[in-house]
């Protein structure tokens, strides 16, 4: 493509994590196993919630959405990364790079808003339990979920459009594992101050605002828990929020460290490791966290396994 005296690239080359073949094969096996566990774990959580009527509550409705986001996010990054680990030429077409940025950035934004919505759900459950079913009715839950998906997608569309309008000239080497926002805008051969401002604004709107809402929700939740007289009551209330709080720390912590200060961002290697943690490990860990730290989910698993064992025994006899 050509425009005036500027040459526009048709494809990008992702430099990835390593150029050593043995290392790439080892990483391929590791990331493939991680991706399989991620897909299996999240779809099992969704299936479990659908099958067990005791889990048909607002909290688990939002957890289904979170699992869908996690699987989709991992799918937007890992398959491409796996293909490049075994490829000699690690190119990605211009359109595919833009699509990857749109989906990964959008799904990340959706998750931030969704975690804030889940924090509000936990706030109502702990601080106003008698009116929980009245406040968190089906219509509100659906609207909150739709708001999460729409807001994340709209922000991603805006960021993707303004990023790929930048002239990249002949610089096509992206020193990252994927078409990540900060890595892509560094390729521009023009001033990127406006893009950095846009990143800061979107970070405030879709990262810091939900984070502040989560923080306020948990201040109220902790205040309410401390007022509970019985130790057992406090423990039960805390366990209600423990899984969500763990996921919040993982997701918001990494994103804030990466995006909130683009000018003083970490090194390229640190960015790659942070991106790996967020796109590979977090989607795999989330269903495990909700399975291990949640009594209702563990009870549902035990019930389902008991039913499967009973069916197997009958078939065997």
UniProtKB/TrEMBL annotation:
The chain crosses the membrane at residues 25-48, 60-78, 98-120, 197-219, 240-261, 273-292. The keyword Repressor does not apply. It is a multi-pass membrane protein. Keywords: Cell membrane, G-protein coupled receptor, Membrane, Olfaction, Receptor, Sensory transduction, Transducer, Transmembrane, Transmembrane helix. It is found in: Cell membrane. It comes from the Eukaryota. Residues 41-290 form the G-protein coupled receptors family 1 profile domain. It holds the Pfam family 7tm_4. CDD domains: 7tmA_OR2F-like. One of its GO terms (cellular component) is plasma membrane. InterPro entries: GPCR_Rhodpsn, GPCR_Rhodpsn_7TM, Olfact_rcpt. One of its GO terms (molecular function) is olfactory receptor activity. Putative odorant or sperm cell receptor. Belongs to the G-protein coupled receptor 1 family. This is Olfactory receptor. It comes from Vulpes vulpes (Red fox). The lineage of its organism: Eukaryota, Metazoa, Chordata, Craniata, Vertebrata. The gene is LOC112934809.
């Amino acid at each position: 493509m050509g425009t005036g005296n500027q040459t526009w690239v048709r494809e990008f080359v992702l430099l990835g994590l390593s150029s050593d073949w043995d290392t790439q094969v080892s990483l391929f096996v590791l990331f493939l196993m991680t991706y399989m566990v991620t897909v299996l774990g999240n779809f099992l959580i969704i299936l479990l919630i659908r099958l067990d009527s005791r889990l048909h509550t607002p909290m688990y409705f939002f957890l289904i959405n979170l699992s869908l986001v996690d699987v989709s996010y991992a799918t937007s990054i890992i398959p491409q990364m796996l293909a490049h680990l075994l490829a000699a030429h690690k190119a990605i077409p211009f359109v595919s790079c833009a699509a990857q940025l749109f989906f990964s950035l959008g799904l990340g934004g959706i998750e931030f808003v969704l975690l804030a919505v889940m924090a509000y759900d936990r706030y109502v459950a702990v601080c106003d339990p008698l009116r929980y079913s009245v406040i968190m009715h089906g219509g509100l839950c659906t609207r909150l979920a739709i708001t999460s998906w729409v807001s994340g997608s709209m922000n991603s569309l805006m960021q993707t459009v303004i990023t790929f309008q930048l002239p990249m000239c002949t610089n096509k080497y992206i020193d990252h594992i994927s078409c990540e926002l900060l890595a892509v805008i560094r390729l521009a051969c023009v001033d990127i101050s406006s893009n950095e401002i846009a990143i800061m604004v979107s970070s405030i709107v879709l990262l810091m605002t939900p984070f502040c809402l989560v923080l306020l929700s948990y201040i109220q939740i902790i205040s309410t828990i401390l007022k509970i007289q019985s130790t057992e009551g406090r423990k039960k209330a805390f366990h209600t929020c423990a899984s969500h709080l763990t996921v919040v720390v993982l997701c918001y912590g990494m994103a804030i460290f990466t995006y909130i200060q683009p000018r003083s961002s970490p090194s390229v290697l640190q960015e790659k490791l942070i991106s790996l943690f967020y796109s590979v490990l977090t989607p795999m860990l989330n269903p495990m966290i909700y399975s291990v730290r949640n009594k209702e989910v563990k009870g549902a698993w035990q019930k389902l396994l008991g039913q499967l064992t009973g069916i197997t025994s009958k078939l065997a006899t």
